[in-house]
C-alpha cells in the first residue's frame, strides 16, 4: 500500500471551474481538496506550483494488440498503456472485435481480449464490443455481456471494411434496437463500405496504386452520407449514438442536424484530425504517405482541423479520442503496389493530451475547463464512470495529471513510448506537457 500523497500549490481544473487548492490522496482515492493541507511526515509530497492539477485523460478509442489483415497492431496492451500514461492518459476504452465469420461469439471474443489485456495494462481500461454480423443468438449474447458481471455498456458497428468487419444496415438496425432495450450505446464507424469497394476497384484498374488512392476511394461525402444514415437508423431504433473519429465538416454537420432534431448523438474527433490534413497522402515519399493511411482518411481541406476544434468549443462535437491503431513501416509497406493492402491505422494515445492543448487552448479556441471536458469528463459521463473518473473531487479515483501549461516539447519517434518506428505528429511543437501522471 502506497503512502498518502499531497499535491500542493497547484490549480485544480475541472470541466466546471478552476481554483487554487491542495489535493490529498489515500489508497488511490481523493479524500480532500482544499486550501493549505498540511503534509504529515509519512506523506509523499508533490509541489505543483505554476502547474494545473487535472483529471487523467480518458481515451475512448484505441485498438491495442488488434489482429487485422493478417497483422497485429504494434502497440500491445503493455506498450500502448505505457504510452498513454506517459502522455497523461489514465484510462483507455479499447475495441474487442470477435471473429464472427469464423464462428467466435461475443463472449468468446470478450474473454480473448480480457486475456490479452488483464496481465499487461498499466492503467484502467474498458471494452466496447464490435458486432460485425447478426445471428439468432446475438441478442442473448448482448444481454449477457452487458450484465454487471461483465460490465460492457457500448457496442461498435463498422459501416466499412466490406467482407470483414462491415455490417449491413438491417443488421445494425436490429442490433441498435437491442442496444435501446439494454440501455447500451451504439458506436459507429461511418463510411459507405459498398461505394468504397467499387471505387477501390475502379482506381486500381486505372493504375492508381499509391496511398493517394486511399483518400480518393473515400471522398468526404462518403463519411457525411454514412453519418447521416447512422443517425437516422439510431433515431428509428430509439438508440443513443456515438460517432467515432469524426474527420470531416460534412460528418460534423450531419451530427449537428440530428441533434437539433432531438436525437442523442455524440461526436468524437481524434487528435490526428485536429492537427493534420490529407495533404500527406500526396507526399512524394511513398512510405511517408502510407504512414497516414487510416479510415476515414484525414480531410484534404486544410481548414477542417481548426473547424473541428471550434465545434468542440461550441459543444457541437463532444470529446476527443485517437483511434490509436499502430502499424510499423514494415507493415505499411505490405501495401506497395496496392493501396488497399496498406494496414489502416495511426498513433495518438501518447500525444493526444498535448496536441489537444496546443490546437485548442494554446491557440485560444478553448479554455482549460473545456479542455478537461473534451479529454476526460465527457467520456466519463458517456461511459457511466463519472465522477469516479474525469473529476478532481473527494471520492474520485486518484487519476491525476500534473500539467505544465508553460512547458514546450517537440513530438518525435525518438522519444515516444510507442512500439513504433515513426510518429505521425513528428516535429510538432506543443505548448503544454503532462509532467507527472498518477494512475490509481
Automatic annotation (TrEMBL):
Highest taxon listed in the record's lineage: Eukaryota
Keyword match Hydrolase: yes
Catalyzed reactions: 5,6-dihydrouracil + H2O = 3-(carbamoylamino)propanoate + H(+)
Top-rank EC class of the record's enzyme: hydrolase
InterPro entries: Amidohydro-rel, Hydantoinase/dihydroPyrase, Metal-dep_hydrolase_composite, Metal_Hydrolase, Metallo-dep_Hydrolases_sf
A GO-annotated cellular component: cytosol
A Gene Ontology molecular function term of the record: dihydropyrimidinase activity
Domain Amidohydrolase-related stretches: 52-415
Pfam families the record matches: Amidohydro_1 (PF01979)
UniProt EC number: 3.5.2.2
Keyword entries, A-Z: Hydrolase, Metal-binding, Zinc
Family annotation (CDD domains): D-HYD
Record GO biological process: pyrimidine nucleobase catabolic process
Post-translational modification: Carbamylation allows a single lysine to coordinate two divalent metal cations.
Residue ranges the record marks as coiled coil: none
Cofactor section: Zn(2+)
PTM sites of type N6-carboxylysine: 156
Similarity remark: Belongs to the metallo-dependent hydrolases superfamily. Hydantoinase/dihydropyrimidinase family.
Subunit structure: Homotetramer.
Protein name according to UniProt: dihydropyrimidinase
Source organism of this protein record: Caenorhabditis remanei
Amino acid at each position: 500500500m502506497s503512502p498518502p500523497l499531497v499535491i500542493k500549490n497547484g490549480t485544480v481544473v475541472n470541466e466546471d471551474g478552476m481554483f487554487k487548492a491542495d489535493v490529498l490522496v489515500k489508497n488511490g482515492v481523493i479524500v480532500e481538496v482544499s486550501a493549505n493541507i498540511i503534509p504529515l511526515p509519512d506523506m509523499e509530497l508533490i509541489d505543483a506550483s505554476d502547474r494545473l492539477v487535472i483529471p487523467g485523460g480518458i481515451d475512448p478509442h484505441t485498438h491495442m494488440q488488434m489482429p487485422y489483415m493478417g497483422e497485429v497492431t504494434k502497440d500491445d496492451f503493455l506498450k500502448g498503456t505505457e504510452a498513454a500514461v506517459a502522455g497523461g492518459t489514465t484510462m483507455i476504452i479499447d475495441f474487442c472485435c470477435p471473429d464472427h465469420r469464423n464462428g467466435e461469439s461475443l463472449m468468446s471474443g470478450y474473454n480473448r481480449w480480457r486475456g490479452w489485456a488483464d496481465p499487461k495494462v498499466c492503467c484502467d481500461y474498458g471494452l466496447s464490443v464490435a458486432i460485425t454480423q447478426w445471428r439468432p443468438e446475438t441478442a442473448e449474447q448482448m444481454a449477457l455481456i452487458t450484465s454487471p458481471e461483465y460490465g460492457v455498456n457500448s457496442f461498435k458497428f463498422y459501416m466499412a471494411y466490406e467482407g470483414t468487419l462491415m455490417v449491413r444496415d438491417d443488421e445494425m438496425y436490429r442490433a441498435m434496437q437491442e442496444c435501446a432495450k439494454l440501455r447500451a450505446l451504439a458506436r459507429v464507424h461511418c463510411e459507405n463500405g459498398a461505394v468504397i469497394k467499387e471505387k477501390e476497384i475502379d482506381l486500381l484498374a486505372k493504375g492508381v496504386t499509391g496511398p493517394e488512392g486511399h483518400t480518393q476511394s473515400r471522398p468526404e461525402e462518403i463519411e457525411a452520407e454514412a453519418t447521416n444514415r447512422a443517425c437516422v437508423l439510431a433515431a428509428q431504433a430509439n438508440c443513443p449514438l456515438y460517432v467515432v473519429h469524426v474527420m470531416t465538416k460534412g460528418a460534423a454537420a450531419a451530427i449537428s442536424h440530428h441533434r437539433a432534431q432531438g436525437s442523442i448523438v455524440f461526436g468524437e474527433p481524434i487528435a490526428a484530425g485536429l492537427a493534420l490534413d490529407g495533404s500527406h497522402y500526396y507526399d512524394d515519399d511513398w512510405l511517408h504517405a502510407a504512414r497516414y493511411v487510416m479510415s476515414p482518411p484525414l480531410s484534404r481541406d486544410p481548414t477542417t482541423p481548426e473547424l473541428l476544434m471550434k465545434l468542440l468549443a461550441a459543444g457541437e462535437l463532444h470529446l476527443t479520442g485517437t483511434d490509436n491503431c499502430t502499424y510499423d513501416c514494415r507493415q505499411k509497406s505490405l501495401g506497395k503496389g496496392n493501396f488497399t493492402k496498406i494496414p489502416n491505422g495511426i498513433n495518438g494515445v501518447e500525444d493526444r493530451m498535448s496536441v489537444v492543448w496546443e490546437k485548442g487552448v494554446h491557440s485560444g479556441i478553448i479554455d482549460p475547463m473545456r479542455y478537461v471536458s473534451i479529454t476526460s469528463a465527457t467520456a466519463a459521463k458517456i461511459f457511466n464512470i463519472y465522477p469516479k473518473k474525469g473529476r478532481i473531487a473527494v471520492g474520485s479515483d486518484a487519476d491525476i495529471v500534473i500539467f505544465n501549461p508553460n512547458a514546450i516539447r517537440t513530438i518525435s519517434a525518438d522519444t515516444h513510448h510507442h512500439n513504433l518506428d515513426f510518429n505521425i505528429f513528428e516535429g510538432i511543437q506543443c505548448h503544454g506537457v503532462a509532467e507527472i501522471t498518477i494512475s490509481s
